[in-house]
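Page header: ASSEMBLY MODEL / four components / 764 residues total.
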Amino acid sequence: MTDWLPLSPAERSVAIEVLVHGPLSRTELARRLNLSQGSLTRLTKPLIESGLLVEAPWAGAPAEARQGRPSQPLGVVAESRSFLGFKITDEMVYGVVTSLRSDIVARLDRPLTGHDPEYVADLLAAMTAELAGRHPAVAGIGIGVGGFVREYAVVGESPYLSWRDVPLAGLVRERTGLPVVVENDVAALVEAETWFGAGRGLDRFVVLTIGAGIGYGLVLGGRRVPCAEEDRGFGRHWIIDPQGPLTPQGERGSAVSLLTIPSIRYQVRAATGRDASYEEILAAAAAREPMAARVIGEAGRALGTLLAQIANFVMPQKILLAGEGVGLMEVAGDAVRDMIRTHRHPLAAPINLETKVSDFHDWARGAAVLAIQVLVLGRTGG
Amino acid sequence: MTDWLPLSPAERSVAIEVLVHGPLSRTELARRLNLSQGSLTRLTKPLIESGLLVEAPWAGAPAEARQGRPSQPLGVVAESRSFLGFKITDEMVYGVVTSLRSDIVARLDRPLTGHDPEYVADLLAAMTAELAGRHPAVAGIGIGVGGFVREYAVVGESPYLSWRDVPLAGLVRERTGLPVVVENDVAALVEAETWFGAGRGLDRFVVLTIGAGIGYGLVLGGRRVPCAEEDRGFGRHWIIDPQGPLTPQGERGSAVSLLTIPSIRYQVRAATGRDASYEEILAAAAAREPMAARVIGEAGRALGTLLAQIANFVMPQKILLAGEGVGLMEVAGDAVRDMIRTHRHPLAAPINLETKVSDFHDWARGAAVLAIQVLVLGRTGG
DNA sequence: GGGGGTTACTTTTGCTGCGGAAGAATCTTG
DNA sequence: CAAGATTCTTCCGCAGCAAAAGTAACCCCC
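Prediction written out in full:
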C-alpha cells in the first residue's frame, strides 16, 4: 500500500485536525486553522490522492437541512490501517489492535514468564503475528514500558524488568519487519489522551494516574513536557501529609504511600492482618468498616490536596485522573472535594476534573497512539 | 517624532529580539529566528529607517578580534523614548522613568492621601508632568494596580483602593494626552521579568513574590497564563502546614500566614509582645534569638516546600523569587534547601532558582514594561 | 603592502504558498 | 424555474522566503 508521507507542515496540521476531531468540511477546517478556503482545496487534494483522507458525505452534520451547497466532510478511513500497541508489565504483556483513530478493535494478553530481552521480543513478535493475522494492513507497532526510554527505540533503564540499554525497537523490528516505536508508558498514555482523549485541543492539560505507582504528565501548548524523573516514578517525594503512613514504597506521607494500590493494601494488611484486594478494600470502606474507611478516607483527602496543588500551580484547563486506582474517587469523592475546597481560593475557577477508569489495555492503546503519531504524521507533537 | 508602527510579524519578532537581548548582528538574528541572512537584510532595513533600530558598531562583542568582516550589531536607541511606570499602593504612588530597554533612569514617589479616582488621576498627571519635564519624548504610561484590571484600561475591582470599575486609563489619558496602559501589578511584574529579566527567552517560567502578600505568575511558551484568582491575592489557601500558625491574613498554615511580611511581624508580635520591623526580625533570627528564629525557620521551610511543589508540578526552567520579603532566603536559605530536598525526587533536575530583592520601583518598572509591550510592539506577548 | 583566507552583509533570482476574487456546483426557498 | 445561499474550485498576484552569487571589510602572513 502506498505510504503517505512526507507532509508539509500545513498538510500535517490539516491531517491531524481531521484525524483528531473527526470528519470536518473544508470550510470548517479553514476556519479552525486560520487559512483561506482556497488553501484548503490545495492542501486537501494531495491528502485525498494519497488516501489518507476521503470525502465522507455520510458523516458530519447528518440531515441538518441547510441552504446552499452541502459541505463535503473529510475524514480518515479509520480502518484502512491498523496499529498494534503493547504494554509490558512485570508479568504480563497486554496488546491491542487499534484503528487509525485509535479505537481499540481487538485485544490479546499473554503472561510474561521471563525478562530476557530476546524472549520478550520473541513474545511480542508472536503476539504481533497472531493479531496481524486477524487484522491486516498493520502499519506499525507501539510499545509502552515503565522506565526510561530513549529516541523512541532503546529502553535505557527499566528497574522492574532489570533492563539497561535494551534496543527493544530494533529487536521487534527484526522479527516482524514492521516499524516499531517504544516509549515510556506514562508518556504514551499522556500523548494518547492529548490527541484522542480528554485533552483534545487543550492548551494546558494534566494527566494524573493512580495504580501500582503514580504517574504525572503535563501538556502545555499541546506538547507534553518531558522531565527527568518521569521514568523513575513520580510521587515518591510528593509529601502530602508529613504525619501520614509509612509504607515500603514511598516516603512517609507521600503520594505514593497514600494513594497507590500496593500501599493501600499494605496499610490495610498491616492494620488488620488480612490480605485484601483493592476492590475489597474499597467495598469495605463504602460499607464503613473502620480500618478500610480510615485508609481510604486518608487517601481521598490526599488526592484532593494533590489535585488542588496541581490546579493552583499549573492552572490546567483540565485534569484527567486515570489508572487502575481511580475507584477511589467513587468511594471517597466527598473527601476529595472537601480537600479541594480547603486548598483552593474560593474565587478560583473550579477544577475541570475527568475521571477515567482505565485498565492495562488503555496503556497499550497509548503506545499505539504513539505509533500513529510517529509513523503516520512524522513524530511531531501538536 | 515619527511613530514606528505598524510592524509585520517577522519585523516584530526581529524588533523584540533586539530589544530584549540587546545588540545583535544580522547573522546572529538570522540564526536565532531561523531565517536566512537575506531576509534579515530585508527585515531590518525598514526598522532602521524608521529609527527603531540603529547600527551600533561600538556594541556587541567588543574587541574580540576574529577574522573576517566584523559584524554590525543592531541595537535600539534605548534613550530615544522614555516610558513612565507607576505602582499605586495603599498610601504611596511610586513612579519611574525607563528607557526603551526598561532601564530605570529616574524615580519619583508621592504619598497618596486619598483614594478618590479623580484625585489619584490628578496626582498621576502631576507626577507625569514633573517626570516628563526632565525626560522628554515620553511615549506612554503604564500603571500597576493590585486588583482586577480589564482590557489594559479599567480597574474592575481593587479592594485596598475600594475601587469598582474605575476607567483609570481614560482618566489619566485625558489629563496627560499620553497613551496609558493599566494592568494588575503582579501581571506587570511577571511580564517585565519575562521580557527583560530572569525569564528572558524561557519557555516555562514561574515568578513567586513575597511581600505584603503572595504573588504568583506562570509563563508558558513565553506567554503569561491569566487566571481568575490572581487579582484577589494568591496563597491564602495554599496550605503548606495544617498545624502552622493562624494569622489574621490567611488560613492556618497557608503560604500567606507563613511567608508574608505582615504575618511574620504579627507572629513575632504575638509571641514577644514587641513590634519589630521585618529587617529587625531577620537580623534577630540570624542572631539566633529563639522566637524570631522559630518564625523565620518555619517560613523558610514553608518556602522550600512551596518551591518544591511548584517545581514538581510545573517543571519550570526557572523560578524567580522576588518581592520585599525575599531577605528570608539569606537568613533561612538552609531550611529552604533542606525542604526542597525532601520534597523532590533525588533524580529530578535541580531547581533553577533566582532571587531578586525588589522594591516598589521594580513594580513600577513592570508597569512601564507593559506600556512598552503594548505601545511599541502592538500588545502581543511572546 | 598586497595577496589569500575568512566572515558579514547585500543583491538577485526564482519559487512556494498564501489570500482574494471570481466562478462553478449544489442545495433550499419561493 | 428563478433567486438566494453556501461550499468548493480555479486562477491570479504577491509577500516573503531560501539559495546563490556578488561585494565589503577585516584578518594574517609572506
